[in-house]
């Protein structure tokens, strides 16, 4: 049996205001949005990146979010990146700084309440310290 490498093409989100939410994520990722009808597309921000589609909500938002995405930044830059994202309109939810030695993260919400994490992974010689 042949296995193919599977990669993430895009995240699809329903939004109360697709244009505004796409503008937030465009500022986060550094790419330009491309509108088409009621939907907006953000291309990947480089090799290995992923696109994002924003479309109008088809029904009321669920009370509980069952998935979120984890974004990774270089070790030592998480705090500055979180501050930048807060300045763009994200909301701070919580920090996890000492639960496991191989990662520290901050959980944020975008302007429509979608959760996402900003994580940094310390080099091996900094783990557990």
Automatic annotation (TrEMBL):
What organism is recorded for this protein?
Answer: Paeniglutamicibacter psychrophenolicus
Family matches, as Pfam families: Glyoxalase_6
Domain Glyoxalase-like stretches: 11-118
Q: What is this protein called?
A: Glyoxalase-like domain-containing protein
Tell me the classification of the organism that encodes this protein. Bacteria, Bacillati, Actinomycetota, Actinomycetes, Micrococcales
- InterPro entries, per the entry: Glyas_Bleomycin-R_OHBP_Dase (IPR029068), Glyoxalase_6 (IPR041581)
- Highest taxon of source: Bacteria
- Which SUPFAM superfamilies does the annotation name? Glyoxalase/Bleomycin resistance protein/Dihydroxybiphenyl dioxygenase
């Amino acid at each position: 049996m042949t296995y193919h490498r599977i990669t993430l093409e895009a995240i699809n989100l329903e939004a109360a205001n697709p244009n505004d939410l796409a503008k937030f994520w465009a500022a986060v990722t550094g790419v330009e949005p491309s509108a088409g009808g009621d939907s907006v597309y953000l291309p990947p921000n480089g090799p290995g990146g992923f696109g994002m589609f924003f479309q109008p909500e088809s029904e009321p938002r669920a009370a509980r979010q069952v998935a979120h995405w984890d974004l990774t930044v270089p070790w030592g830059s998480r705090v500055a990146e979180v501050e930048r994202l807060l300045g763009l309109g994200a909301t701070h939810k919580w920090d996890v700084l000492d639960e496991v030695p191989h990662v520290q993260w901050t959980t944020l919400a975008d302007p429509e309440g979608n959760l996402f994490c900003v994580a940094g992974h310390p080099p091996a010689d900094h783990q557990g310290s």
